[in-house]
Amino acid sequence: MLDACVLYPAPLRDLLLSLAAAGLYRAKWSQQIHDEWTRNLLEKRPDLSMEQLQATCLKMNVAVVDSLVIGYEDLVESLHLPDPDDRHVLAVAIRSDADAIITFNQRDFDETELAKYDIYTEHPDEFVSNMITLYTPRVILAVREMRGRLRNPPKTVDDFLKTLHQQGLPQTVNRLSEFAPSL
User: Which of 46, 66, 155, 173 is most enclosed, with most CB atoms within 10 A?
Assistant: First the structure.
């Protein structure tokens, strides 16, 4: 289950969606999560329009089959988290039968509450690094295809890895650096 904070930055969103579209995991989110990351992005990027971001959300929903979770709202009130505004994220995870919530904000989710539902949080860097370990050839192929789509401007492997590092993915960058000639 992808939290809004990992969908907000385009390079990280692209990486996570590329891995999901390659069939390496089942990415899940809700319209409420879409609304949260797009609202936050519009606050920082007035050069973007709501229409552009809505089109991005639609493309995400189409690119990753069965990703949009509905029917979780009835669970929200029964959940207990340090920040009540995060309860919908846990509710989406429960309703989608997710194993993990991928988030930068791990401390916002009480592990005891999550354990009741056999869910844990995972930092996106750890998540992607683990994917590289488990599915090396498929991750490398997905990353190479992702980098190949970057045309405005195109990115060298070094620039691409630097961007991922800036996204908070140092472990991932270290692992991908081993395969730089293949990226």
Answer: 173
CA nearest neighbour of 88 among 99, 103, 102, 78: 78
Which residue carries 């354990």 as its tokens?
115
Is omega for the bond preceding 153 within 30 degrees of 0, making it cis? yes
Partners of 29 in beta bridges: 68
**Interior angle at CA 45, CA 32 and CA 153, nearest 5:** 110
Q: Which residues of the chain have a pLDDT value below 70? A: none
pLDDT digits (tens, 9 = 90+) for 52-84: 999 999 999 999 989 999 999 999 999 999 999
**What is the rounded CA–CA span in Å between residue 177 and residue 183?**
9
Task: Note the maximum CA span of the chain.
Answer: 50
